[in-house]
Amino acid sequence: xxxxxxxxxxxxxxxxxxxxxxxxxxxxxxxxxxxxxxxxxxxxxxxxxxxxxxxxxxxxxxxxxxxxxxxxxxxxxxxxxxxxxxxxxxxxxxxxxxxxxxxxxxxxxxxxxxxxxxxxxxxxxxxxxxxxxxxxxxxxxxxxxxxxxxxxxxxxxxxxxxxxxxxxxxxxxxxxxxxxxxxxxxxxxxxxxxxxxxxxxxxxxxxxxxxxxxxxxxxxxxx
Length: 223
Prior knowledge:
Elements: H1 28-44, E1 49-53, H2 60-68, E2 72-78, H3 81-94, E3 103-104, E4 119-125, H4 133-146, E5 147-158, H5 168-180, H6 189-198, E6 201-208, E7 213-220
Helix pairs in contact: 1-2, 2-3, 4-6
């Protein structure tokens, strides 16, 4: 929190191609990691239910999720109006009735607008290394509030492991992030697990993903 008591705003960095005529943004990184993420989600998610994605970005992922899991009602969120427009364009192009209109949400805020409740899953991809520890804590706290007992908090991205970087490329990327903002950068697996536990979320597994990424799967403990 700042001295004025206002939570910081995260924006992150999304490298995207020029928008399509209908306003859809297309991030090459999202296209690359979609298939491995879907592979894990097919093993984890129920056939029917509700899911919320934090920081939906361009909207590419959640449009694909809605297609792959027609029994789940998906709610996308983001903090940037331009991204909300892109998400809405992807929603319109998909024609999927199980994809809700995007919700403006800054997970750094202490008070969230209504998004959903008793949801079966929350997801976020490539966000934690772009935000501060305080924002990451806020995200897990919010997931803990939204999820029903037994619901899953799923987080994809790069992480440190026992305080170490997996590669020199990861170290260099983290240094470049901290040069832009000392408050952001890679989070360590152990710290993330403890942060999730503080919000009533028990780590169920860490899934190894391509390009040194991990997927955290945490389950909401019964009250």
